[in-house]
C-alpha cells in the first residue's frame, strides 16, 4: 500500500471518536484533508450537530466548502476533540508538526482540546524527533536571520528559512518558518525551552506530552497507541 492508502485506513477509527454535538478541532495536512469530507458526511447524512475550529485558513476553506459549521477559537469555551496529523511521532507519542506551516494554530487548538488524537501512516514513526524531518520554528520576519544564527550556534546544526519556489513561505499569522536540523543527542524538552525564549520566536513544532491517542495506518492494518499515564 502507498502512503495515501495507509492514511485512509485511519479514517474510520477517527470518525468513531466523533459524537453528536461535539466541537471539533480540525487539523491541517494531507491526512486531515481526507478526514474533512468524512466529518461533513456525519452532518449531511447522519444529522450530527457539529462545530469545527480550524488550525489553518486552508482547512477552514475546505470545511466551509463542505458545509461544516466553523467557529473561531475565541468564540468557544471548550473543544471536545481535536484530530490532527503529524510529521514525526516518537515512542512516547511526542510529535514534530509544522510541515504545513500551521504549527502555532495547531498547538493552540490541540492543547486546548479535552482529547487530542493524531492520525498518521507508519512512515511517520521514528526513534527520535528529528530523525527524518526538520523541526519547524515560526519566527517574526523582522529578525528571522538573527534567530536562525542563534539556533545554528546553539545546536551546531543547519537552519533554513522555508521557501515556496523562490519566495519565503508566509504563515497564516504573517510570519516565517525556520526548518532546523536535529540530531539524536538533542533533548526535545531542553531544545523547546531554549527556542521558545528567543525573542522573535512565536512557537516551535515540538508537540510534547499533548497526544492522548495515535491512530497509525500500517501494512498490517490500523495500530492504536495510547499515551501512558
TrEMBL record:
InterPro entries: NagB/RpiA_transferase-like, Ribose5P_isomerase_typA_subgr, Ribose5P_isomerase_type_A
GO-annotated molecular function: isomerase activity
EC number(s) on file: 5.3.1.6
Function: Catalyzes the reversible conversion of ribose-5-phosphate to ribulose 5-phosphate.
Domain of life: Bacteria
Family that this chain belongs to: Belongs to the ribose 5-phosphate isomerase family.
Subunit composition and interactions: Homodimer.
Organism expressing this protein natively: Staphylococcus felis
Top-rank EC class of the record's enzyme: isomerase
SUPFAM superfamilies referenced in this protein's UniProt entry, alphabetically: D-ribose-5-phosphate isomerase (RpiA), lid domain, NagB/RpiA/CoA transferase-like
Residues reported in the UniProt entry to bind substrate: 28-31, 84-87, 97-100, 124
Catalysed reactions, as listed in the record: aldehydo-D-ribose 5-phosphate = D-ribulose 5-phosphate
Swiss-Prot/TrEMBL keywords: Isomerase
Active-site annotation: 106 (proton acceptor)
Protein name in UniProt: Ribose-5-phosphate isomerase A
Pathway stated in the Swiss-Prot or TrEMBL entry: Carbohydrate degradation; pentose phosphate pathway; D-ribose 5-phosphate from D-ribulose 5-phosphate (non-oxidative stage): step 1/1
Pfam families linked to this entry: Rib_5-P_isom_A
CDD domains in the record: RPI_A (cd01398)
